[in-house]
Amino acid sequence: MKRGYILAGLLLSTFLAAIEGTVIGPAGPRIVGDLGGVELLSWVFTAYLLTMAVTTPIFGKISDLYGRKPVFVIGSVLFLAGSVMCGLAQGMEQLIIFRAIQGIGAGGLIPVTFTIIGDIYPIEERGKIQGYISSVWGISSLVGPLLGGYVVDSLNWRWVFGFNVPFGLLSLYFILRYFHEQMERRKVKIDYAGAVTFTVGVAALLFGLATGGQQFAWNSPILLTVFAVAILMLAAFFIVENKAEEPLVPLRLFRIRDVAYSNVASLLASALLIGLTSYFPLWVQGVLGENATRSGLLLAPMSVCWLVGSVIGGRWIVSRGSRFTSLIGLLLIAIGAIGLVFVTDGTPEAMLMVWNAVYGLGFGLSFTVFTIIAQSSVGYQLRGASTALNSFVKSLGQTIGVAVFGALINQHIAKETASGSVMGVKVTQEDVNSLLSPEKVQQLPLELWNTLRHVLENGLHVLYIVMAAIAAAGVISVLGLRNRAPEAEGSREEA
């Protein structure tokens, strides 16, 4: 019975994280229309993903040393506090800061959720339970865009940050009340040097990728200094980790073949996921002129098929092996990515839904496999670190993806509007922001609206081509996996 309540708490926490990630997509254009700063839109995603990326392995290691429960509680509290503050933000800069706080909480919450599953369920049941967890992502991904779009159109974008609060509080209660872990008391050493070098290095790298070509020129002294700091700190991090008694990120995990290849595939697939959920609403609302509810509806097939794919993936990894399952998943993702390359403003909405459905089926198949591989390839003492490493790689892929994709689109818009006119039509930054606001876009002259939406369409087309290339690389990466089912407890490889 207790295990059932714990599972309910973990499912709710997963729903919390998933619903937050999906409702923000349809709200993005409206946030720009309200707060302005279309050039800062990518930072609404980047700030969250960056702080989640740098804190995920730290919290994962702490959970191995001090227990899963304290980390879960701290992560939940920070995540909920950040959610409330995001809903109260009065400017784009404030929203970005509060999203960063949310990300710190998610860095503790998300990986520990999967680790607890690995702790309380034997390998025979783990595939099924991980399928449930992935199914919640699918269900909440379906509810999120639809509900988020409806609320944005009917009430205000601020309300989308309140969806996860009641679920988070209930999840926190279940874990506090029913989860009692048995921790061996042992002398531990926190890898402070690794934490500092890793945090500074990754933060500098992602900051440089997010601002390069936008706030700062690629060859500017500031940006060159940032990248130099990133290289030096990351080099120092690898040196420190090889010598640390209790390394923050056990680099020896990469000596395990399946862990190494699955993490590469996770990195690429996660970049595609954030590209689709963050910038597809821009296509629907900016290019097609539809509302947020419509963008959520067109994303719904991805969520439904993610649910189907995750259930199938949990079964196939046992019956058909990890390489077969993940290869089918990445091939489907590649088909969906290539399909979007050929969409235009005249493409029927039914075809957009088809390509999103194919994408979702591929995500469901592949992400389920990657999580199970991370847990089944190591023993208890490294399970938290291995799961956190996989979660970190996914968040790193999303962070780099949204930073690079945002840079591509912003540079295209800036280039097309640099002269202050496009095809003889005068254009201002406020006009670009108005394109994404349902209220303000009505005030734009028809000729200006047509001009701006075609500028945005061309920028998104370039983005879809890049995403198709990344999907092809993902297919190649999973060929390195061994085609086998997860090993039974006690027969795993130790790094």
Q: What is the H/E order?
A: HHHHHHHHHHHHHEEHH
Question: Which strand order spans the largest sheet, edge to edge or round the barrel?
Answer: 1-2
Structural class: mainly alpha
Helix content: over 70%
CATH class of the largest domain: Mainly Alpha
Q: State the distance separating the first and last CA atoms.
A: 35 Å
What does this structure look like?
The protein has 495 residues and is mainly alpha-helical. The chain folds into two domains: 413 residues, Up-down Bundle (Growth Hormone, Chain: A), CATH 1.20.1250.20; 54 residues, no CATH class. Helix content is 77%, strand content 1%. It contains 15 helices and two strands. A two-stranded antiparallel sheet has the order 1-2. Helix 1 runs parallel beside helix 5, helix 9 runs antiparallel to helix 10 and helix 9 packs antiparallel against helix 12. About 1% of the residues have low confidence.
Main attributes?
495 residues; mainly alpha; 2 domains; 77% helix; globular
Short synopsis of the structure:
The chain contains 15 helices and two strands. It has 495 residues and is an all-alpha fold.
Topology:
Blueprint: H1 2-35, H2 41-66, H3 68-87, H4 92-120, H5 123-154, H6 164-178, H7 192-211, H8 221-243, H9 257-287, H10 292-319, H11 322-341, H12 349-376, H13 380-417, E1 421-422, E2 425-426, H14 429-435, H15 446-477
Antiparallel strand pairs: 1-2
